[in-house]
Specification:
The complex is a heterodimer of chains A (253) and B (385).
Chain A: H1 2-21, H2 36-41, H3 63-78, H4 80-89, H5 93-106, H6 110-131, H7 141-150, H8 157-167, H9 172-194, H10 200-209, H11 211-221, H12 234-241
Chain B: E1 20-29, E2 46-52, E3 56-59, H1 62-65, E4 87-94, E5 98-99, E6 104-111, E7 116-120, E8 125-127, E9 140-148, E10 153-156, E11 161-163, E12 168-180, E13 194-195, E14 200-201, E15 203-211, E16 225-236, E17 253-262, H2 270-273, E18 279-286, H3 291-301, E19 319-331, E20 334-340, E21 351-358, H4 361-371, H5 373-379
Parallel strand pairs in B: 1-6, 4-7, 5-8, 6-9, 7-10, 8-11, 9-12, 10-15, 11-15, 12-16
Antiparallel strand pairs in B: 1-2, 3-4, 12-14, 13-19, 15-18, 16-17, 18-21, 19-20, 19-21
The chains are: A mainly alpha (253), B mainly beta (385).
């Protein structure tokens, strides 16, 4: 009987997760490129249509694929320790506030920080609208919403993603993998709309090719404590932080 | 000035190439003479206490301490930082002009009273190659722990690090900046959210940078690993004035944290990921003494600039520079951090974070020297020259 219950619960969380990462879920990821637009304009990712990566990626990968791998590595080593800690310490608001204060010191790149707050606030607003006050464990959704509304929390995305997934009963590994998926999906979706690098089919091929790197990155990030969170490909961050100085742009970040 | 001679105790380690050398430098001002004139006289002598164990040497030259940069606080125009005392320079020297595998430096720097200090090096921080194959590479390390008093000023302005082939370098720098809040009866210290405006606050300048390698011999990003972590905390100087209110948050506020780990992976070699860039630098300015300069740099570097647009792997001039503001706000004794671009958080920034990448190390270094130019006037010269 237990397995049937587990199966049902698993199916329920799968549906929850599908809804959370659905591009129709109004988190606001649509208006961000996670640094891709700046990287294209600054020449780090040369424009021009690129073919899909070979089945076993051998160096050097195409510029867009390389950007995605760098971005996944950076997000895994910098954001995931905070997502995981928010998931774990999401039982009290006080610990979430301390964690967010640490995150803000790490998130000194103001473009990324702005994107993080916009998407975090979008997330909590949409989640409360969709799921009401669900709370499997930890701080309830309405508690998080109130904390953001009163300014107790700024509402940064990695912190809220961890806390929201915990409240909705999404398993930890799924929480981390879906975070990386959403991050790369946002960049790829921006790449398709930007138009100079890839079409939609090739973008999906690239996304599929990221499955292993994402799983590896999640495993790798398990050994990184919050106080060890770091960046591994700083040039991508440097480009993103230059976003505001671009003359013409389509995206917020 | 009582500049203690550096101790050169003989190393007890049998392996001369693997040693931990500790150092400590304390800068302080003599108490100001009690006078009736207001404002108080600007010049207060600075004292330095130095301790170091072999092979580390600390040196405070008299020349830099006796510069004509002594200006009264806030009497200087423009964005030249106004220091409260003559800036003393501390040279961190190492026999062999670099670190070999296993070397570890542990340095503490404390700025007390109204002292001003600048920590620098004589040349590139060279990290020689680690021993053996990649399985047995021994890291070299550098740990710096600094504390800056509410009226103090500290600048960490070393030359860039150069890691040789197969080198493994780990660096950790932690600065605690102390502040004294306004007294609770001050009408401006209300419960509403407002920009951080303490009674006194320490100031810091932090420069951390790396060159790809021995560029002249085409050794680019060939090191085994480079790890650097810079942390700045803002802390209430609780016990300094007995009549200050008990802070609601006695734990220090994390103000800035930047950690970078560079190493090649089979999928993504660094030479590929770094494109044509050969120098990476991060600069942080925070505190009242450098607030003018921080805001000017934030304004200058936030301007929209034409970029080459994908034709090459670097921007037109081979320089990638940008700035983010550091904003602090307080409400009822609690301080919080906000980051933002120019005009973010609706007001003047308390500090700035500048990132710079350059395809030509020499040009990148000139640009860093130019950006920090106004600083050289008040610290008594350009230590990177």
């Amino acid at each position: 009987m237990g397995s049937v219950v587990d199966e049902e619960r698993g199916a329920a969380t799968l549906l929850t997760l599908l809804q959370l990462v659905d591009s129709a879920f109004p988190v606001g990821g649509f208006s961000h490129s996670n640094g891709l637009e700046a990287s294209i304009q600054l020449g780090l990712v040369p424009s021009g249509k690129q073919t899909a990566p070979p089945p076993s990626p051998s160096p050097p990968p195409t510029p867009l694929h390389s950007f995605l791998l760098q971005s996944v590595s950076n997000v895994a080593s910098l954001h995931l320790p905070f997502v995981r800690e928010a998931y774990r310490c999401g039982h009290t608001m006080a610990s979430l506030c301390v964690l967010e204060a640490e995150w803000k010191a790490c998130s000194h790149n103001h473009v990324a920080s702005r994107a993080s707050v916009k998407q975090g606030r979008g997330l909590i607003g949409s989640v409360v609208a969709a799921f009401g006050d669900a709370s499997c464990s930890g701080v309830s959704l309405s508690g998080l919403d109130a904390a953001v509304a009163t300014g107790q929390l700024d509402g940064h995305f990695p912190i809220l993603w961890g806390a929201v997934c915990r409240a909705l009963g999404v398993p930890l590994t799924d929480t981390m993998e879906s975070y990386l998926f959403a991050s790369s999906r946002t960049a790829l979706s921006a790449a398709v709309r930007e138009g100079s690098l890839t079409g939609p089919l090739n973008a999906q091929r690239l996304q599929a090719a990221l499955r292993d790197p994402i799983r590896q990155a999640v495993r790798m990030s398990e050994g990184i404590a919050v106080c060890q969170a770091h960046c591994v490909y700083p040039l991508v961050e440097y480009c993103q932080a230059s976003h505001d100085s671009l003359f013409a742009k389509m995206f917020y970040s | 000035m009582s500049s203690g001679a550096p101790t050169e105790a003989s190393s007890t380690s049998t392996d001369a190439s693997a040693s931990i050398s500790r150092g400590r430098a304390v800068f302080d001002t003599l108490p100001a003479p009690i006078t009736s004139c207001l404002p108080p006289p600007p010049l207060r002598p600075v004292t330095a206490t130095l301790e170091a164990t072999y092979p580390l040497r600390l040196h405070v030259p008299k020349r830099a301490a006796a510069t004509d940069s002594l200006q009264h606080p806030r009497s200087t125009g423009g964005d030249v930082p106004s220091l409260r005392s003559a800036c003393q320079w501390l040279y961190v020297l190492n026999y062999g002009a670099g670190l070999v595998a296993g070397d570890c430096i542990d340095l503490q720097v404390e700025v007390r009273g109204a002292a001003s200090a600048l920590v620098t090096t004589q040349g590139y921080g060279m990290v020689y190659h680690g021993r053996g194959s990649s399985e047995t590479i021994v890291p070299s390390g550098q740990r710096m722990t600094c504390r800056v008093s509410p009226r103090g000023f500290l600048a960490l302005v070393p030359h860039p690090i150069i890691c040789f082939r197969d080198a493994h370098f780990k660096q950790h720098q932690h600065i605690t900046v102390e502040y004294i809040p306004r007294p609770a009866d001050d009408p401006s210290a209300s419960d509403t959210r407002r920009p951080f405006s303490p009674h006194e606050c320490g100031s810091v300048v932090l420069l951390d940078w790396i060159v790809a390698g021995r560029v002249a011999s085409d050794e680019l990003w060939a090191f085994f690993a480079y790890e650097t972590t810079n942390v700045i905390h803002l802390q209430h100087a609780g016990a300094v004035a007995p009549d200050t209110p008990t802070p609601n948050n006695p734990t220090p506020l994390p103000l800035f944290r930047d950690s970078v780990k560079l190493s090649s992976t089979p999928t993504l070699p660094l030479t590929h990921a770094m494109a044509a860039y050969r120098l990476l630098a991060i600069i942080v300015l925070f505190g009242p003494a450098v607030e003018e300069l921080a805001n000017r740099l934030l304004t200058e570097l936030s301007r929209k600039r034409p970029h080459s647009g994908g034709a090459t792997v670097v921007c037109a001039d081979g320089l990638l520079v940008n700035a983010s503001g550091v904003y602090v706000e307080e409400r009822g004794g609690e301080v919080r951090l906000r980051s933002g671009g120019l005009g973010g958080a609706g007001g003047r920034a308390h500090g700035v974070v500048i990132r710079l990448a350059a395809s030509e190390p020499r040009e990148g270094m000139s640009e860093v020297e130019r950006l920090l130019g106004p600083l050289w006037d008040s610290v008594g010269g350009n230590p990177l020259k």
